Amino acid sequence: MSIVGDNIKALRAMLGHDGEDMTQGELADKIGVTRETVNKWETGTIPNLRDSNINKLREAFHLSVDDLRSESAGLAAQLRGDVSNVSPIHPLKVTAGRRATVPLRTLGRVHAGDVSDEEEVSDEVEVPTSVLEGHPHAFALVVEGDCMDRVVPEGYHVLVDPDVEPHNGSVVVAELEPGRAVMRRWLKGQDTLVLSADSHSRHEDIVVTLEDDPVRVVGTVVWAQTAEEMD
C-alpha cells in the first residue's frame, strides 16, 4: 500500500460513524470518482494520484497536502497518534478515540452561525494528552448552531488555542465586538476578511473590511470531538 493509500484509508476511518469506516463507495461519491478508483488508490495499484484528484480530496474534506502525501504527518500518522502537534494551516483534526485522554474544563459556548453573546458553562471534555501537550494554553468550548456542521456538529466540543495564528482555511473563534463571538473558517485578503460557513445548510458569509472593523481572534481550533468521543 502507498503512503497516499494509507492516508486515504485513514481518512475513511476518521469519517466513519458508529464504529464503522466510511466505505470506499461513499468516499468515491463525495469526490466524483468510482469505488474501483478509490480501491486502486488504497492498494497502490495507482500509486501516484493526479493533482486534480488530490485537490478533490482536499476540497471535499478540508485537508492539507501533508494530510494526504506525508508519512510522518499524514492522516494515518494522526490516526495512530504519532503526531503531537497540529498544523496551523489545517488545524481541525479528528481523533480516533483510542489514545490516552485527560479531562479539560469547558469554558463556554461558541456559536457556529450568527454572532452571539458568549456564555460560560460548567462542563468537562476528555481531550487526548498528545493534543494538550502541543497546546498547553488551549481551552474547550461547546459548539452551538449548524453553521460549521460539516466539521463540528452542534453540541460537540472544540479545543481552541489562543497562541496559534490562523491561516486561510483555519477554523477560528473570533469576536467582531467585545463579548460576542462566532466560529467560522478564516479567509483573509489584503483588505477584507471573510468568516465563512462550512455547513450542510446555506449560511451567509460574514464579510469584514479590516480597516473599518477590527476583528479579535480568540483562538484557532486545533481539535474537534468525534461522534465516538461523544458516546
Describe the protein's architecture and organization:
With 231 residues, the chain is α+β, with helices and mostly antiparallel strands. It has two domains: 3-80, Orthogonal Bundle (434 Repressor (Amino-terminal Domain)); 101-230, Umud Fragment, subunit A (Ribbon). Helices cover 26% and strands 28% of the residues. The chain has eight helices and ten strands. Strands 1, 2, 3, 4, 5, 6, 7, 8, 9 and 10 form a ten-stranded mixed sheet that branches.
Name given to the CATH homologous superfamily of the largest domain = Umud Fragment, subunit A
Q: Residue ranges: pLDDT <50 for 5 or more in a row?
A: 84-91, 113-120
Mean pLDDT: 76
Question: What integer value in Å does the Rg equal?
Answer: 18 Å
* Portion in beta strands: 25-35%
Number of strands: 10
Class per helix and strand makeup:
alpha+beta
CATH level-1 class of the largest domain: Mainly Beta
What coarse outline follows from CA principal-axis ratios?
globular
Secondary-structure element sequence? HHHHHHEEEHEEEEEEEH
Count of alpha and pi helical runs: 8
Number of domains: 2
Largest sheet composition: 10 strands, mixed
CATH topology of the largest domain: Umud Fragment, subunit A
Identify the CATH architecture of the largest domain: Ribbon
